[in-house]
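Researcher: We plan to redesign the surface later, but first we want a full-length starting point. C-alpha cells attached.
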C-alpha cells in the first residue's frame, strides 16, 4: 500500500506537460514531476536541445515515461498542436505547467512594437491558448491541474521590462479567472511566482554588479534562487496535496515579497 506521502504527493499514472522545458526552470520542474512518478512531455523549439533533456531525464525516470514535442509558442496553431499531441501520447492529460516565457529589456519609451508583441504573444497569448486547449480536455474528464508560471513582476512593475511586467500581471489575473470558472468542475488552476533565479532570462541582471547587489541585498535568503528551488512547489501544486488550493499565486522568492 502506498505511504501517506506517496498518496498525497505521488504522481504515478499522471501525464504532465511542461512548456519551455529545454532549459532553466522548466527543465528542473520537468525533472521533479518525473521523479514524483508522472509521465512527462518536455517542450521547446529546438529538437536537439529537447533530445538532450530526454536523455538527462531518462536518468531520473524510465525513458518510456519521457516524451518530447517541439513547438513554437509564438504560434497559436502550434500551441493547439502541442496540447493535442500531448493528449494523444497517453490518451489522457492531467498536468499542464505553462513555463515558457521570454523577456525583452528596453526602456519603455524605446520599447519596440516587435518586442512588445513577441513578449505578449508567448507570455500571455500562448499561456491562454494552452490553458484553453488543455482545459477543454480536463473539464471533460472532470479533473486536472494547471500551473502557470508568473513572476515577482506579477505584483511589481520592474524596470525596463514593460511588456514582461504587463504579461506577468495578466498571467496572475488569468490564473484567478480560470480558477473561478473551473475549480468547481475538478480543474485546479494556480501559479508559481519565482523570485530572482539564476537563469538565462536574468543573465543581464547577474552581470550588472550594481543591480545584482541591489537585488541580493533585498532577499532575506541572501542568495539568488536556483531552478531546483521550484521543484517542491511544482510537485505540490500538481499533486493531491494541493486539492483545496486554486486561484493561488505561490511566491518562491527567498522572502523578497515579505521585505
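Model: Full-length starting sequence:
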Amino acid at each position: 500500500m502506498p505511504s501517506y506521502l506517496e498518496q498525497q504527493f505521488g504522481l504515478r499514472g499522471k501525464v504532465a506537460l511542461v512548456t519551455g522545458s529545454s532549459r532553466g526552470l522548466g527543465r528542473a520542474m520537468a525533472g521533479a514531476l518525473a521523479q514524483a512518478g508522472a509521465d512527462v512531455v518536455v517542450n521547446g523549439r529546438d529538437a536537439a536541445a529537447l533530445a538532450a533533456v530526454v536523455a538527462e531525464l531518462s536518468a531520473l525516470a524510465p525513458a518510456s515515461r519521457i516524451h518530447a514535442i517541439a513547438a513554437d509558442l509564438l504560434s497559436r496553431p502550434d500551441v493547439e498542436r502541442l496540447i493535442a499531441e500531448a493528449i494523444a501520447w497517453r490518451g489522457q492529460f492531467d498536468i499542464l505547467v505553462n513555463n515558457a516565457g521570454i523577456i525583452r529589456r528596453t526602456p519603455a519609451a524605446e520599447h519596440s512594437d516587435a518586442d512588445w508583441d513577441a513578449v505578449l504573444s508567448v507570455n500571455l497569448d500562448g499561456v491562454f491558448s494552452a490553458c484553453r486547449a488543455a482545459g477543454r480536455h480536463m473539464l471533460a474528464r472532470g479533473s486536472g491541474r494547471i500551473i502557470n508560471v508568473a513572476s515577482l513582476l506579477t505584483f511589481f512593475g520592474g524596470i525596463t521590462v514593460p511588456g514582461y511586467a504587463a504579461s506577468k500581471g495578466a498571467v496572475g489575473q488569468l490564473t484567478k479567472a480560470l480558477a473561478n470558472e473551473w475549480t468547481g468542475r475538478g480543474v485546479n488552476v494556480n501559479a508559481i511566482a519565482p523570485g530572482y533565479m539564476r537563469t538565462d532570462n536574468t543573465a543581464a541582471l547577474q552581470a550588472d554588479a550594481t543591480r545584482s547587489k541591489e537585488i541580493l541585498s533585498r532577499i532575506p535568503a541572501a542568495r539568488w534562487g536556483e531552478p531546483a528551488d521550484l521543484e517542491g512547489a511544482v510537485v505540490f501544486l500538481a499533486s493531491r496535496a494541493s486539492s483545496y488550493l486554486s486561484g493561488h499565486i505561490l511566491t518562491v522568492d527567498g522572502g523578497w515579497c515579505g521585505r
